[in-house]
């Protein structure tokens, strides 16, 4: 492998002009470009793409002091990536900057949250302008920012999905969706998928199906179906066979009627798992035949991230009864939403229902700006083009490195699963940590997930470029060559 790496580096040097690489042998590396330094075990490292922005000097607390306060005053359940935690103090588009001004390529996007780019000027301007006029009142008064954003969101939805309930997060959105389904149908039973993640409150924790994210508290009325995982699933990519399990759960585990079915179109926390072809359409038919509602969790896959479509569920050719969203809806603003039909929405009038901060003017003004930026800057098309390019480069890397068991996902929601044995699909849990550390050292930040923690979650801002993709893959290549 090391000899192969040597030949790879030689070819890179020979073709530097063609590949647009800047190498460390060249002098005058600016402080903000410190990612382009001589790596301890490699002769040369590709230089981070040029970017016309220099962050203001940072004179705040250092990482060690922040970590001390965090350990003393914040929840002990909080965790961080990397042996030496990063103190991120500035962000601009697809890049983040640490306390020393070092620039990193952000391939995680705040867990698929930053869609327009860090501190996008249009979004920031919309928030500031609204905050100057009115930061908060209550939904008991009228405000155009809330209504305008709801109208804009509804225009992005198919069919009769046009009634919006604003929340503060994806967990809240999914909690509300589950309650709506139960109220509307008069049934309690919900079906979700194994390996899914829908939040960490009472109802959503029940729908979540990974022990990593579940506490031993009462979680009633949820049945977890076989996960239609083309890579690790028992039926491979045969969606119809997985769908039969849902029918059997209804027949043998419920009264024969259920409240609904909730599913991500691509499982995010579960390791960027695509659902087997034909599964969603088959299951939606089964659910509706017994009077249940179909809930699409678009918290991570929504807002143009899949590239080919604005919503992840559209890639499966289905139209849900309820859609939940958060993360990309606000580019980092704490906001979420549930969208359903006028008929289904009526169930919440049975009692008084409202959310104090749901539809906050500043948040909805920012969210509306996000929609405008996605359209104005053609970010959906960029996610498709750049995502396809990046996925192809990652597949080529898979041919080179045996540790890569699978490359999957759509648009700029991609996963790379590492295994120590391709036949047995043994999770490479320790190896992925080593690769992440090496990549950070070369200026790339990326997330990880999956039940075994062995999957790279690649969910960058949608302004990611092909040049960024080249830098990302070549850094990963070098990091993997050190295993």
Written description of the protein model:
Helices cover 36% and strands 16% of the residues. A hairpin with a 5-residue loop joins strand 17 (447-449) and strand 18. It has 483 residues and is of the alpha/beta class. Helix 6 (144-154) packs parallel to helix 12 (361-376), helix 9 (239-253) packs parallel to helix 10 and helix 13 (379-400) packs parallel to helix 15. The strands form four sheets. It has a seven-stranded mixed beta sheet, with helices on both faces. Strands 13, 14, 15, 17 and 18 form a five-stranded antiparallel beta sheet that branches. Strands 1-2-3-16 form a four-stranded mixed beta sheet. The chain contains 15 helices and 18 strands. The protein has a domain at 137-371: Aspartate Aminotransferase, domain 2.
Number of extended strands = 18
What strand order characterises the main sheet? 4-12-11-10-7-5-6
Which second-level CATH architecture of the domain at 137-371 applies?
A: 3-Layer(aba) Sandwich
Report helical residue fraction: 25-40%
Number of helices: 15
Write down the Rg.
23 Å
What's the CATH H-level homologous superfamily of the domain at 137-371? Type I PLP-dependent aspartate aminotransferase-like (Major domain)
Largest sheet properties = 7 strands, mixed
Uncertain segments are 1-32
Strand content: 15-25%
Mean pLDDT level? 91
CATH class of the domain at 137-371: Alpha Beta
Indicate the overall shape: globular
Distance between the termini: 9 Å
- What is the SS-derived class? alpha/beta
CATH-assigned fold name of the domain at 137-371? Aspartate Aminotransferase, domain 2
EC number: 2.6.1.44
Protein name: alanine--glyoxylate transaminase
Enzyme class: transferase
Family: Belongs to the class-III pyridoxal-phosphate-dependent aminotransferase family.
């Amino acid at each position: 492998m090391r000899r192969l790496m040597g030949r790879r580096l030689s070819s890179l040097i020979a073709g530097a002009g063609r590949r647009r690489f800047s190498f460390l042998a060249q002098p005058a590396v600016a402080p903000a470009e410190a990612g382009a330094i001589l790596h301890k075990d490699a002769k040369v490292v590709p230089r981070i793409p040029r970017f016309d922005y220099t962050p203001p000097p940072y004179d705040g607390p250092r990482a060690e002091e922040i970590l001390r306060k965090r350990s003393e005053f914040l929840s002990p359940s909080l965790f961080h990536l990397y042996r030496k935690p990063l103190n991120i103090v500035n962000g601009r588009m697809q890049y983040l900057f640490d306390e020393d001004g070092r620039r990193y390529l952000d391939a995680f996007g705040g867990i698929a949250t930053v869609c327009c780019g860090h501190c996008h000027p249009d979004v920031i301007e919309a928030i500031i302008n609204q905050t100057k006029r009115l930061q908060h009142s209550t939904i008991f008064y009228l405000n155009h920012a809330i209504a305008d954003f709801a109208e804009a969101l509804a225009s992005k939805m198919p069919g009769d999905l046009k009634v919006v309930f604003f929340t503060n997060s994806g967990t809240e959105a999914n909690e509300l969706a589950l309650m709506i389904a139960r109220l509307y149908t008069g049934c309690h039973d919900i079906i979700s998928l194994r390996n899914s993640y829908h939040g960490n409150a009472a109802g959503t924790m029940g729908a979540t199906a990974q022990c990593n994210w579940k506490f031993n508290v009462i979680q009633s009325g949820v049945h977890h179906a076989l996960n239609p995982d083309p890579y690790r699933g028992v039926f491979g990519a045969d969606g119809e066979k997985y769908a039969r399990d849902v029918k059997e759960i209804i027949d043998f585990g419920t009264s024969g009627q259920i409240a609904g079915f909730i599913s991500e179109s691509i499982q995010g926390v579960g390791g960027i798992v695509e659902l087997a072809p034909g599964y969603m359409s088959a299951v939606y038919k089964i659910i509706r035949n017994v009077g249940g509602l179909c809930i699409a969790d678009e918290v991570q896959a929504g807002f143009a991230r899949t590239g080919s479509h604005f919503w992840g569920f559209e890639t499966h050719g289905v139209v849900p009864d309820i859609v939940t969203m958060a993360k990309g809806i606000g580019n980092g603003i704490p906001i979420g939403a549930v969208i359903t039909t006028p008929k289904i929405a009526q169930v919440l009038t049975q009692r008084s229902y409202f959310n104090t901060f749901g539809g906050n003017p500043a948040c909805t003004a920012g969210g509306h700006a996000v929609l405008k930026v996605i359209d104005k800057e053609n970010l959906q098309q960029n996610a498709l083009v750049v995502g396809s390019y990046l996925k192809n480069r990652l597949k080529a890397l898979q041919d080179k490195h045996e540790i890569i068991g699978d490359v999957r996902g759509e648009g700029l929601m991609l996963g790379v699963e590492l295994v120590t044995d391709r036949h047995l699909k043994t999770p490479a849990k320790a190896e992925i940590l080593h690769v992440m550390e090496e990549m950070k050292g070369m200026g790339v930040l990326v997330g990880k997930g999956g039940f075994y923690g062995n999957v790279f979650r690649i969910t960058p801002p949608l302004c990611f470029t092909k040049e960024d993709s080249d830098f990302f893959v070549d850094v990963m290549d070098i990091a993997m060559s050190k295993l």
